[in-house]
Amino acid sequence: MESKNKEELLQKFSQLEQPLLDEILAQSTIRHLKEGDEALRTGQYIKSTVLLSKGLLKVYREDENGNEFLMYYLEPGNACALSMMCTARDEQSQIMVKAVDESEIILIPSHLSELWLAKYKSWHNFVIASYRQRFEELLQTLDSVAFKALDERLLFYLKRHVKVSGNEVKLSHQQIANELSSSREVISRLLKKLEQTGAITLHRNYIEVHDLDIV
Amino acid sequence: MESKNKEELLQKFSQLEQPLLDEILAQSTIRHLKEGDEALRTGQYIKSTVLLSKGLLKVYREDENGNEFLMYYLEPGNACALSMMCTARDEQSQIMVKAVDESEIILIPSHLSELWLAKYKSWHNFVIASYRQRFEELLQTLDSVAFKALDERLLFYLKRHVKVSGNEVKLSHQQIANELSSSREVISRLLKKLEQTGAITLHRNYIEVHDLDIV
DNA sequence: TCCCTTCTGTGACATCAGTCACTGTACTCC
DNA sequence: GGAGTACAGTGACTGATGTCACAGAAGGGA
């Protein structure tokens, strides 16, 4: 790993102790993903723990008919919790992970990540914290699917998207419909209604978000 | 803790190493729950890791309007993964845990459970395995809500229930409706349809399950 | 510039699920 | 055994969401 990566790593994962960061730098491999590249596919065997150093990943579920829906996003400094749990047993991934923007991921061989749990307190804490965070996000997603009508789910979705990538939501209605496991026409109508409240402005291939809390 | 508990504990948690079991026996407290008693409420501060030694618990989510829906069941030998994650930070519970049958739970003070992660390899493995299992079950629940119509969700629900408590499903239609976050009438109709296929027979306050795979 | 593709908007309609209103049935407690 | 209560069955209606069928708008490439 080159030295410029080192500095970036230190920044993104500053909660990890120095000797651990050194090991990561020495032992892991870097992968660059273009927008739309997959970091992990459903059914794939997991051999590494995935850390995100740059970019944005989405973690989602896909059913047998190709329907998908978004679980949550991963930002730089996050780890894919599932890839940590699968550690050491060559488990198959239950999820899809895809790059939303151009991204850079750090792949740590599973046996090392396993080893470090005992060796580095900060790694152990990081893993636990990651589990917890993801579990909570998943619960929120679950809530929104189980308890909320589609208009509220759309709001929840937009808010989350704004939080990770700003007020210009660069998505087509079709993409949004996919991630909510709905259909384009319905999303179009709901977005139109939102536009009428003044919360957003619609454009081709992107949505300008003004204020989602006024709704 | 009395000695008869000790033997039971050994049985249910045989994957844990002996010195750890001794510590558990010495340091934890036992609580007996009657059917319907709550082990954990949403918003409650978590001070202990919860292990289930006898009975059956259901873990579910509740929204602000009192709607609920089932996440998964815990059987003897299982632990409440959420209560492990909240460890050491006095976090609030995001979930409800309630006894389905008369149950016995083991409460381990959070600081100990935290300590043991480093001290006992088998504890560490147990915690990781618990996270993973619960995460997977949660994903399945999520799938069923997101991708399936209510009739299939009902099937999924019944199958899961049969797995943990046998072919006599002792529940009213109302209870099932609650756990699926639906309404009694709808569940009644779907059950009636199921009965017509021969998969089940309906009785007052319980459902006799013959074969859910023929549907 | 012109064609072609992709994205968006919209009406009409079908379907599933939730709600209301009511009936009937089984169990329980005096 | 009678009254009261919880549970179950059913028809009618409503609303939300998904589907179909188009039409129009925006952008991209030859």
Provide the succession of SSEs of chain A: HHEEEEEHEEHHHEHHEE
- The CATH superfamily of the largest domain in chain A is Jelly Rolls
CATH topology of the largest domain in chain A: Jelly Rolls
Largest sheet features of chain A: 4 strands, antiparallel
What portion of residues of chain A is helical? 40-55%
Rg measurement of chain A, Å? 19 Å
Query: Total helix count of chain A?
Result: 8
Structural class of chain A: alpha+beta
Oligomer: homodimer
Strand % of chain A is: 15-25%
Biggest interface, CB < 8 A? A-B, 32 and 32 residues
What's the domain count of chain A? 2
Mean of pLDDT of chain A: 91
Gross CATH architecture of the largest domain in chain A? Sandwich
Spatial order of strands in the largest sheet of chain A? 2-6-4-5
Description:
2 copies of one chain form a homodimer. With 215 residues, chain A is of the alpha+beta class. Chain A has 2 domains: 3-145, Jelly Rolls (Sandwich); 149-209, Arc Repressor Mutant, subunit A (Orthogonal Bundle). Chain A has 8 helices and 10 strands. In chain A, the strands form 3 sheets. In chain A, strands 2-6-4-5 form a 4-stranded antiparallel beta sheet. Chain A is elongated and about 55 Å long. In chain A, 33% of the residues are buried. The mean pLDDT of chain A is 91. The interface between A and B is medium-sized, with 32 and 32 residues. Chain A binds a DNA duplex (30 and 30 nucleotides) through residues 149-151, 172-174, 182-186, 188-189, 191-192, 202, 204-205.
